[in-house]
Amino acid sequence: QVHLVESGGGLVQPGGSLRLSCAASGSIISINAMGWYRQSPGKERELVARITNVGTTNYADSVKGRFTISSDNAKKMVYLQMNSLKPDDTAVYYCNGHFVIRQLPAGYRSLEVWGQGTLVTVSS
Q1: 78/96 Cα distance (integer angstroms)
Q2: Would the pLDDT of 17 be above 90?
Q3: How distant, in Å, are the alpha carbons of 12, 23, 26, 63, 113 from that of 30?
Q4: From residue 73, how far is each of 33, 87, 90, 102 by CA, in Å?
Q5: Burial class, 88, CB count within 10 angstroms (exposed 0-12 / middle 13-18 / buried 19+)
Q6: By CB atoms within 10 Å of each CB, which of 11, 24, 35, 92 scores lowest?
Q7: From residue 92, how far is each of 31, 53, 89, 95, 117 by CA, in Å?
Q8: Distance CA 32, CA 57 (A)
Q9: Number of H helices, E strands in the chain
Q10: How far apart are CA 74 and CA 71, in angstroms?
């Protein structure tokens, strides 16, 4: 019912910038929050940035001052602007969302959805 599609990953040099986008689709009644997580080989998935429906944001300490998360609820989109990229930022980045969706035959429920991930490689 709900799908997340990410785009914008790729290869970038240290110090460079990259912008990730995530589009949500489906029978979404409302969006509670959306965010970005990442996972590197040998490490657990970690929160990168998160934004709620009222605009509050949270960032991992390692990306504060370098990454900016934003959203467009009307378009059901969330973005991650990544600046001053470091090799340690190399990871698969996953879009995540918490949604209120329709439930048959009537009513609604909360649902967490993950995107398929997009690879970001920071290397010379």
Answers
A1: 10
A2: yes
A3: 34, 14, 11, 28, 13
A4: 10, 32, 28, 17
A5: exposed
A6: 11
A7: 24, 25, 9, 10, 6
A8: 12
A9: 0, 11
A10: 9
